[in-house]
Amino acid sequence: MKISNLCFRSFQVAVLLFIVCLAVGCSAHPSIERDQIVSGSPVSTAPAVDEAPQPSESTDNPQNEINNSDIDQVDPTESEPIDSIDGQDEEELNVKNIAITFDDGPDLKFTPQILDILQEKDVKATFFVVGMQVNKYPEVLERIESEGHMIGNHSYYHPSFTKLDSDELAEEINNTDDKIFEVTGHKPTIVRPPYGAVNDEVREQLQEWNKEVVLWNIDPRDWDGTPVDDMFENIMDHARDGGNILLHSFGSKHVENTVKLLPLIIDELRAEGYSFVTVDKL
Ligand code: ZN
User: Is 248 a catalytic site residue?
Assistant: First the structure.
């Protein structure tokens, strides 16, 4: 009995040892099983394939790093300086140009007062002059030119262009150009039709002569005796980048209100960030 017991115990020990060996044996090669599980295939090259991309990924890394560093470089400008980018955009958007234009001069009374204000405030404006007035006061046109303002053609006798035939229109334009040329040595390229009266025919004709029609988009009606406060409000309400303000330097006694208005709008528009430009810069 003792011998059979011994044999049985030996068998038990052998079985236990076998189980232990099996267990140890399995845990000694976990990678194979993991690889097989990861690859989902028992093929032994699978792990190598899985591993292979790693070095190549690492060779991609420089690119990734470049990309990352690019991103890193971009990110700060996108996250932190996003405000400053926006700020720049806002600054760009905040560049607001506006033009002040004066029709019907020159004269001896109001045009010089307007020129004094523009000079004092360091503002460049555009004068659409009438040939008949240039003929009378060439020295005032000379001052307009020498102080850096832009000069445009506003006809010779101030007729409505839409009521003229082609020859009459040519006469209005050419006679005025000639008077301006006598004083300044050059002919204007811009024309403002009196009363803003223009149609396709007139526009095409002027285009043929290389003249650009310039109208306006802000009209405080200074020629009509509008009170200074109302004109001020009108201009500030309608001011925008690209604004083209119609005023007059001659033609009615009400231009005295224009002279009072001018420094007020220059100061207020400037305070709102506007730059004063001639109409060609709009
Ligand atoms: Zn006019």
Answer: yes
